[in-house]
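Objective 1b of the project was to move from sequence-level analysis to a structural picture of ligand recognition. The entry below was assembled by the postdoctoral researcher (A.K.) and checked by the PI before modelling. It contains the amino acid sequence of the target and the SMILES of the bound compound, adenosine-5'-triphosphate.
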Amino acid sequence: MQLSSFSKAGHLVSLLNKGDFKILKVFASSLKNRQFLNLSTLSQYSDLNQSLIKHHLERLVKFGLIGKSTLGYTLLVTGLDIYVLKILANRNIITAIGPQIGIGKEAEVYLAHDSLEQDKILKMFRLGRSSFKQIKRKRDINTGVGNWLLLNIETAKKEFDILSYLRDFSSSFPKPLYRSFHCIVMEPIYGSRLSEVENIDNPQLVLERIIDSMRTAYQKGYVNGDLNEYNVLIDNDNIFILDWPQAIKVDTVNANTVLARDVKNILKFFSRRFEIDRDIQNTINTIKGPV
Ligand SMILES: Nc1ncnc2c1ncn2[C@@H]1O[C@H](COP(=O)(O)OP(=O)(O)OP(=O)(O)O)[C@@H](O)[C@H]1O
Ligand SMILES: [Mg+2]
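Corresponding predicted holo structure:
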């Protein structure tokens, strides 16, 4: 079985030494300004001499964390993964990685432990995974993956900020704990995906709770934009709405269209699975209605 880039990163953390991390740090911190670094820039930004830098670069290239091209050296995806993992471990935020519990178009989600063996959730953004695979296949590191990494960092930041804001108003959104580069750490929710539950004691109540959470988000300024039975977790009758990186502000031009789509997705599911029919326009009005 091929290891995902993340499991490989977990293994590599233990193989790398201080100097390796120093070099990774220079790459990670200069991502925004330049994607390719050469020996002299690296020595400018680290306290290592050029021959030591060369030594560490060779190791990092061998491990597949740094790419080498005619333009210079560049940070690869696994390189940033491993750098973030090291930061999380140093801060006792995540010290062990468990099974992967979600793999979607946009992220890999893992169950993890902190230094007190408390469960945590680690979400690593992998936006545009397929185009990234193409980059890897062609082994075309001349273009670098820096822009792709920056996109994922921005997206992680967006979801973290929205969750931090919304969570103050309702516990039906995951509680975010920490963000580093393209990764966010959250409190775990012990529930099942709505799409997967066979039976619900009181589906009408569950539907009303989902609408109530959508209303809270809307009243505080956001429409989720990807709401469906896969992005709702349910634990007894409690519901949680996940997955906010694509959320839009209620004053965006297409907010009404996006909200209507979210509402339709949820109502369609409850109609199909539980034969509960709720009026679309009435539901939209409830969500948008006066506080
Ligand atoms: N805080 C959490 N607690 C428990 N499980 C979680 C949490 N966050 C995410 N998950 C699990 O990971 C899955 C994917 O998470 P999320 O929807 O946020 O990412 P995604 O990139 O949209 O993935 P997908 O495309 O599969 O929806 C969820 O369906 C859920 O099973
Ligand atoms: Mg999702």
